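Recap slide: Phosphopantetheine adenylyltransferase, sequence and predicted structure.
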Amino acid sequence: MRKAIFPGSFDPITLGHEDIIKRGIPLFDEIVIAIGVNAEKKYMFPLEERKRFIEETFKDEPKVSVITYEGLTIDLCKKINANFILRGLRNPADFEFEKAIAHTNRQLSKIETVFLLTAASTSYISSSIVRDVLRNGGEYELLVPKAVRTK
């Protein structure tokens, strides 16, 4: 069984995240969207709301589930028997950052990271940009799935 974890803070989930997950569905038997919890980080959206956004976005997709976790992603992979980590790449800076993490994860475990390039139409979107648009009263609705737009 090809089981992948798609980890992130998803504060909030964006159209870019949604695109990567949808394009990952044919590649894996199951995708677990894993919302990481970092006590040091200040989030705009509470954990349960972020989880609800994702569950609502993928409610009709039986191969996708959502969980929350703390700690190392590879420890979560081992705990739930996931063989892969799915990550999206928007630009060369993302690649360099993600490559280092992927090499470390492979060194510490046998878990492979699968990278998908973001679609050109969503490559500029990040959760931090969405939060900035939200804080300043901009039209964030163009950047997020419907579940976030109805918050």
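The chain has one domain: 3-149.
The chain has a mean pLDDT of 95.
(End of recap.)
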